[in-house]
């Protein structure tokens, strides 16, 4: 479960990148976080993960306060950033073992998980190669694998499908469904509204730091008395701001 309570963030004392945002993301659901470029999505995610500090408000991961109890809070989630260009000098397997060490995953268990993830993402043959030799899509896959190595309760994914080939994209969406079906939490931002419409249990739309809507796609249609697609409703919502 993720709980954001009245979080606000501004940069250089200018306009608020995120303004008084309150959201609850429950276990057992896939939650989509949507908004145009510069809307506040990545700033919100950076505050959720402890990379950025909110000016005010509280953030909890499975009940642990990210500011007051950062170590326990960070053990609850796995975070895929919007850029996969990390630890490029390491080989794929070295990176996965580094991530497993960080989260104290026992050696027999990590071996099993690396084999399973490598098979699901078709990365078994590439793990002995340096990450800097990988394509963008392969880098995205190794980052996702590293995030999942400790089997976190909460997944926080910032544009996770970018650069993935169709097979890997399908695999990740399948894994997101499996994770939610097990009663765990998936929070992901995306620009691909068609994917959000098919995959998410609920969505929130943010623009200029404000949450314009939070709920199911059906609730959105009922609220705006429209049978338009999520894409068209999104454009209507964010275009008039």
UniProtKB/TrEMBL annotation:
GO molecular function, one term: ATP binding
Pfam families: ABC_tran
Residue ranges constituting the ABC transporter domain according to the UniProt record: 2-233
Highest taxon above the source species: Bacteria
Entry keyword set: ATP-binding, Nucleotide-binding, Transport
SUPFAM superfamilies in the cross-refs: P-loop containing nucleoside triphosphate hydrolases
InterPro entries assigned to the protein according to its UniProt record, in alphabetical order: AAA+_ATPase, ABC_transporter-like_ATP-bd, ABC_Transporter_VariousFunc, P-loop_NTPase
Name of this protein: ABC transporter ATP-binding protein
Species per Swiss-Prot/TrEMBL record: Paenibacillus hodogayensis
């Amino acid at each position: 479960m993720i709980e954001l309570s009245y979080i606000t963030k501004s940069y250089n004392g200018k306009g608020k990148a995120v303004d008084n945002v309150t959201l609850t993301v429950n276990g057992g659901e896939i939650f989509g976080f949507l908004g145009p470029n510069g809307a506040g999505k990545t700033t919100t995610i950076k505050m959720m993960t402890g990379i950025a500090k909110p000016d005010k408000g509280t953030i909890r991961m499975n009940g642990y306060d990210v500011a007051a109890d950062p170590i326990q809070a960070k053990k609850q989630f796995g975070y895929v950033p919007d850029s996969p260009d990390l630890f490029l000098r390491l080989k794929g397997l070295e990176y996965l073992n580094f991530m497993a060490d960080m989260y104290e995953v026992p050696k027999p268990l990590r071996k099993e998980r690396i084999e399973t993830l490598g098979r699901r993402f078709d990365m078994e043959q590439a793990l002995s190669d340096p990450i800097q030799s990988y394509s963008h899509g392969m880098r995205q896959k190794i980052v996702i694998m590293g995030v999942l190595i400790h089997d976190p309760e909460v997944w926080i994914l910032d544009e996770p499908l970018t650069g993935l080939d169709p097979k890997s994209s399908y695999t990740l969406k399948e894994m997101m469904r499996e994770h939610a079906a097990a009663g765990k939490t998936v929070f992901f931002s995306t620009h691909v509204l068609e994917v959000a419409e098919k995959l998410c249990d609920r969505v929130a739309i943010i623009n200029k730091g404000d949450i314009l809507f939070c709920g199911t796609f059906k609730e959105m249609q009922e609220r705006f008395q429209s049978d338009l697609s999520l894409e068209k409703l999104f454009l209507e919502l964010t275009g008039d701001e």
